[in-house]
């Protein structure tokens, strides 16, 4: 059996083991490389900077717990950025499984850093079912869609909500999404009500959303952990995403190595293997 | 670090490692974690539906005068007839309402919010562009959009000019799918980093707190 | 009766919502639209509960009939109720009940459900690495373009890879972002977005007009 044949029939668990090592090693041996900022991320940061201080803004937690590693650094950075500008942050989610819990936890943790008070400086509206109903309905009246906040307190009892009736009272929407909800925010809220939207999304969704950046429907875009790291750096508050980038580097190089090795085996190995490669 | 915090970290670590153990092979630890996960996820919906729909959206408003909400209340109950093969047809009315409202909204926002702005942004002026780079980008964009649309147009056989344009579309699509693959790798690796970060920094970091 | 009523309901509901965009929120049709949207939240939201009932039924059935792996199904059932029951009990009875911070519901989500969901998806990194090794082949010109783009993007999106790309003449990271991501990739995605949106709009019209009825199922 030639070396190429051996490589072609390698037990998948060896691949898994190598990936595991590549993820663990950078935590032990730190290697630092500069992280560049893409124009899309910079645009988003500048758009948030341009939001007048003390404005009412939405931070939308449209992601599942499965993508916390990519999305949470973005939502955390967004809430930090708005609190830094003394903006009134209203959070909500279209994700039934865990969305309300994560928005509550993240916002409360960040609020502690900035000494912000619930009901006055921030409110968590929580979850309601149905993108079309929720996003369209809030254009007429937020209170009709969310009669209470996530904890069951009527909106009329929350001072922050006194000045917020519908999208006319919202200056900016920071949407963090790991699914197609971002498209609904674009097509319903931005198109019909004209509220500027910035989007942070998973790496899987990012290539699609370049189209919305070019059309101006998104003011900017953060793609995956790299996007989150870029935002953390622009905020001058490096956190989880920046730490994760060093690890990301090594695993990417390993996977590129796998692609090269797999192709070498494909071209240099026995012909019959070529036909059964897929 | 308190005892409770330590317990929480170890519980998360156990669940994480139990699920990762499947990468070696199927085993009872994995099966336990998998089934607990399914149950908890379903259980999460009980609290959510009760609180965000039944209490705040239906019961409380009805009690404060919006009596007509009994209509969606009944439609909601009819939905449960789906569980009976004999009466499942009754749920069609509820389903039709959901589909109708969603379709009514979608009809407008798909055209107004996606099709029109996206087409409008594709029609960029070639003359008067800011430099050669922008001109090149505009040309790439127009050719890419048209050839992709034609590639996915299956009502006519891809021959002649249509076939040639579809061929160009394939090249564009391959570039885009390649970019997608690169990004997907990044996304998946990020998720793994998140878990390993927890195991190394929080769980292994907690070893010094024991005893 | 079995199909006429649902078709009429879909028609009325769809037309009200679609036509209301041309009227002010304060108009009668604007009021009806908002009502319908709230009703949608209620009726559609109940499908989540329907899913839970379905899961309980399937697992209960497996336990009752002692099907293979039934002890695990017991765990699923216990987990469903351990999470769900305390959440519906009033918070005034105990801070452990309800859905707020400090409740059993929140604790189970934060320390079991969320990390397990994250781990389930994290395993995909292993599968994608394995797929890259076994299936990602330059078998023809198109596949080669895909492979080269993917490799270049993978390098560009990480600091170490970007540092490597900067060793070559010309600004490769700028080229990748401007002409690949915001150029060719964007054009393709735009084509797909336009095509899918046109499809969704026509499907919506078919549903409102009662031409599309597959959502009703058979019977």
> CATH superfamily of the largest domain in chain A, called what?
MTH777-like
End-to-end C-alpha gap of chain B: 12 Å
The greatest inter-chain interface is formed by:
B-C, 114 and 125 residues
Helical segment count of chain B:
6
Helix content of chain A: 40-55%
Q: Which blocks of ≥5 consecutive residues of chain A have pLDDT under 50?
A: none
State the distance separating the first and last CA atoms of chain A: 21 Å
Mean pLDDT figure of chain A? 91
Q: State the order of secondary-structure elements of chain B, H for helix, E for strand.
A: HHHHHH
> How many β-strands of chain A, per DSSP?
6
Summary keywords:
heterotrimer; A: 278 residues; alpha/beta; Rossmann fold; 2 domains; 6-stranded parallel beta sheet; 6 strands; 12% strand; elongated; C: 219 residues; mainly alpha
What would your notes on this structure say?
The complex is a heterotrimer of chains A (278), B (211) and C (219). By secondary structure, chain A is an alpha/beta fold. Chain A has 2 domains: 60 residues; 200 residues, MTH777-like (Rossmann fold, 3-Layer(aba) Sandwich). Chain A has 12 helices and 6 strands. In chain A, strands 3-2-1-4-5-6 form a 6-stranded parallel sheet, with helices on both faces. In chain A, helix 6 runs parallel beside helix 8 and helix 10 packs antiparallel against helix 11. Chain A is elongated and about 75 Å long. Chain B is mainly alpha-helical and 211 residues long. Chain B has 2 domains: 65 residues; 86 residues. Chain B is extended, with a radius of gyration of 27 Å. Chain C is mainly α. The longest helix of chain C has 37 residues. The model of chain C has no long low-confidence stretch (mean pLDDT 93). At the B-C interface, helix 1, helix 2, helix 3, helix 4 and helix 5 of B face helix 1, helix 2, helix 3, helix 4 and helix 5 of C.
């Amino acid at each position: 059996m030639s070396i190429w044949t051996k490589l072609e029939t390698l037990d998948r668990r060896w691949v898994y083991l190598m990936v595991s090592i590549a993820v663990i090693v950078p935590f032990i041996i730190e290697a630092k490389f500069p992280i560049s900022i893409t124009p899309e991320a910079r645009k988003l940061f500048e758009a948030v900077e341009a939001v007048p201080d003390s404005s009412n803004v939405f931070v939308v937690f449209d992601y599942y717990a499965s993508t916390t590693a990519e999305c949470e650094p973005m939502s955390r950075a967004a809430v930090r950025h708005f609190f830094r500008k003394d903006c009134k942050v209203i959070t909500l989610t279209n994700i039934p499984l865990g969305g309300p819990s994560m928005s509550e936890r993240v916002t409360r943790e960040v609020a502690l850093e900035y000494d912000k008070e619930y009901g006055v400086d921030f409110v968590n509206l929580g979850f309601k079912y149905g993108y079309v109903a929720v996003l369209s309905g809030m254009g007429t009246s937020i209170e009709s869609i969310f009669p209470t906040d996530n904890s069951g307190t009527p909106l009329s009892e929350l001072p922050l909500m006194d000045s917020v009736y519908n999208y006319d009272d919202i200056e900016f929407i920071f949407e963090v999404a790991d699914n197609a909800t971002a498209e609904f925010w674009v097509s319903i809220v931005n198109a019909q009500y004209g509220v500027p939207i910035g989007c942070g999304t998973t790496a899987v969704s990012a290539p699609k959303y370049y189209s919305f950046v070019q059309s101006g429907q998104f003011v900017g875009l953060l793609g995956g952990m790299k996007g989150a790291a870029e935002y953390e750096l622009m905020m001058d508050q490096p956190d989880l995403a920046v730490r994760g980038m060093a690890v990301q580097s090594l695993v990417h190089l390993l996977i590129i190595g796998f692609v090269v090795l797999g192709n070498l085996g494909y071209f240099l190995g026995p012909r019959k293997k070529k036909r059964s490669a897929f | 670090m308190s005892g409770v915090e330590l317990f929480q970290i170890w519980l998360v670590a156990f669940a994480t490692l139990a699920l990762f153990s499947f990468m070696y092979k199927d085993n009872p630890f994995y099966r336990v974690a998998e089934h607990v996960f399914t149950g908890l996820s379903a259980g999460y919906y009980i609290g959510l539906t009760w609180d965000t729909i039944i209490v705040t959206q239906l019961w409380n408003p009805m009690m404060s005068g919006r009596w007509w909400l009994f209509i969606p209340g009944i439609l909601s109950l009819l939905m449960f007839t789906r569980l009976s093969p004999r009466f499942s047809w009754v749920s069609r009315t509820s389903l039709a309402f959901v589909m109708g409202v969603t379709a009514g909204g979608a009809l407008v926002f798909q055209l107004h919010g996606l099709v029109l702005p996206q087409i409008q942004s594709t029609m960029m002026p070639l003359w008067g562009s800011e430099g050669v780079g922008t001109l090149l980008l505009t040309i790439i964009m127009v050719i890419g959009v048209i050839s992709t649309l034609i590639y996915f147009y299956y009502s006519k056989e891809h021959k002649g000019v249509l076939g040639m344009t579809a061929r160009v579309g394939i090249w564009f699509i391959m570039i885009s799918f390649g970019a997608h693959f690169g990004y997907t790798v990044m996304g998946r690796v990020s998720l793994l980093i998140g878990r390993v970060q927890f195991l190394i920094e929080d769980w292994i970091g907690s070893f010094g707190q024991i005893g | 009766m079995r199909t006429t009523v649902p078709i009429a309901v879909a028609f009325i509901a769809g037309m009200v919502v679609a036509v209301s965009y041309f009227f002010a929120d304060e108009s009668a049709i604007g009021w009806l639209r908002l009502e319908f949207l709230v009703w949608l939240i209620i009726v559609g939201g109940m499908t989540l509960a329907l899913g839970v009932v379905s899961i309980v039924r399937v697992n209960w059935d497996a336990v009752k009939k002692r099907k293979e792996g039934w002890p695990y199904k017991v765990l699923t059932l216990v987990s469903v109720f351990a999470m769900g029951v305390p959440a519906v009990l009033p918070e005034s009875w105990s801070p452990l009940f309800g859905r707020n911070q400090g409740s059993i519901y929140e604790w189970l989500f934060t320390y079991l459900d969320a990390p397990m969901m994250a781990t389930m998806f994290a395993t995909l990194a292993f599968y994608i690495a394995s797929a890259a090794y076994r299936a990602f082949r330059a078998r023809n010109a198109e596949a080669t373009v895909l492979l080269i783009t993917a490799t270049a993007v993978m390098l560009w999106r990480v600091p170490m890879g970007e540092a490597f790309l900067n060793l070559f003449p010309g600004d490769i990271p700028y080229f990748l972002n401007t002409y690949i991501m915001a150029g060719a990739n964007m054009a393709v995605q735009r084509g797909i977005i336009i095509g899918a949106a046109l499809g969704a709009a026509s499907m919506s019209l078919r549903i409102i007009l009662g031409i599309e009825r597959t959502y009703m199922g058979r019977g």
